[in-house]
Amino acid sequence: DATQAIALTEKPLRAAVLTLALPVMAEQALGTLTQIVDMAMVGRLGPESIAAIGVSMQPFGLVMALFAAISVGNTALVARFIGAREHDNASRTLAQSLLIAVVFAGLIAVGGYLFTEQIVSIMKPEPDVLALAISYVRYMIPGFFFMLSGMMITGSLRGAGDTKTPMKVNMLVNLINPVLNYLLIFGKFGFPAMGVRGAALATTLARSTGGCIFLYLVLSGKRIIRIERDYIRAFDWPLIKRMLNIGVPAAIEQLITRSGQMLYARTVSGLGTISYAAHQVAINAEAISYMPGFGFATAATTLVGQNLGAKKPEQATRSGWEAWKLGSLLMGSMGVVLFLAPGLLMRIYTDDPEVIRQGITCLRIAAFSQIPMGTSFIFSGALRGAGDTRFMLFVSTASVWIVRLGLSLILINQFDLALAGAWIAMALDWFFRGGIAALRFCSGRWQKVKV
Questions:
Q1: Quick one: how far is CA 185 from the chain centroid?
Q2: How far apart are CA 52 and CA 174, in angstroms?
Q3: Which among 69, 147, 176, 227 is most buried, taking Cβ atoms within 10 Å?
Q4: C-alpha neighbours within 13 Å on the C-beta side of residue 139
């Protein structure tokens, strides 16, 4: 029954982990397939179009990192409240998060539209790429509120143990998106051929559809998390403060990490449009490996949070390890695929021989970092579920700025390794972050964090 708590803390451990992880992985699988189809369509427009989308999303990823202050705190608190059987407080937490989403989306819309060129120019793209990127961003902006709302509701439902509802809604979104892409990018069945602008509009329409469905579900009272009118009449500052206590370190972590990643991407962009297109395509091809990592990270976040809320710290620890074991097995398998079939993956997106050649090298390097990446995802997810976000702030800052960015500059400029140097640095970044996250989880200090 969707109106009752999902008693994950009472289930056998492996069953609880798989109950949460498998729907997320199924959702991610279709999402990844959608990304592949989308990028393949854009890839037919040329390397400049691929680069334009990559350039567009970097600065806005930085802005979105600020929203982690609410989204991370929201999910962690919902998991705790559900574990403690305080369902009204869980629903109230989501309602307050959505109020903040309204304000945040408005600021993004106004600032993003007025200063689009200045924002995108931070990446220093070539002139033809810049023009495409500006149009892409302006068509994405109208859907930000629905995107943020969908993120918040998805996080709340997952924190409550309901991963099937987000799976169903997001699968629908991921089915709508490529259909609209086909119609709007290439101008089929009487629609205008909009190119890159069509890709942005298709994404905006699909995500807005998903956001509306999510809002209907929580406003209608048909899910375990539901919104009553009293919950949204005014800001509940004590509750928001609790969310921020958990979320602000995560937001700072994301902000600093994204800043480093943006400079890293800018470094890669400096290698030229072909190299940046290869980089962007390789990242999309590598996304097949994110499915198990993200799925089991979600399971770890929910189970650790709910078990701590239910006063079961030992079960929380076992949940984290079980998620890691299963996730690492699948991430390792994905690494084998990346190493053995990189050319096949690259050719899905583009037929440019130089883009393919450089991308193959990137994917073979990435193959070796899949288990460390999964370790970072899953144990970081477990720590977030406990509300232990401050520690990973320092780890991520050091790793992205010193290991990823610093080493990439050295390997590119001093050793002339070009794009391969950037990907070697990124792989070492995952080794560092995964190792430190595992050590932190082993220490057990996260069990003492107050939320």
A1: 25
A2: 22
A3: 69
A4: 21
Residues 6+ apart with CB under 8 A from 120: 55, 56, 59, 130, 133, 134, 137
The Cα 386–Cα 92 span in angstroms is 20
- pLDDT by residue for the chain (451 residues), tens digit each? 343 445 676 778 899 899 899 998 888 888 777 777 877 888 888 888 888 888 887 777 777 777 767 888 898 899 889 988 898 999 999 999 999 888 888 888 888 888 888 888 888 888 888 999 999 989 988 888 898 899 899 989 988 989 899 999 999 998 999 999 999 999 999 999 999 999 999 999 999 999 999 999 999 887 888 888 888 888 999 999 999 888 888 788 878 887 888 889 889 989 998 999 999 899 988 988 888 999 999 999 999 999 998 899 999 999 999 999 999 999 999 999 999 999 999 998 888 999 999 999 999 999 999 999 999 999 999 999 998 988 888 898 899 999 999 999 999 999 999 999 999 999 999 999 999 999 999 999 999 888 7
**Which pTM value belongs to this model?**
0.78
Residue type at 225? I
Q: How far apart are CA 208 and CA 211, in angstroms?
A: 5
The encoded tokens of residue 174 equal 């991921």
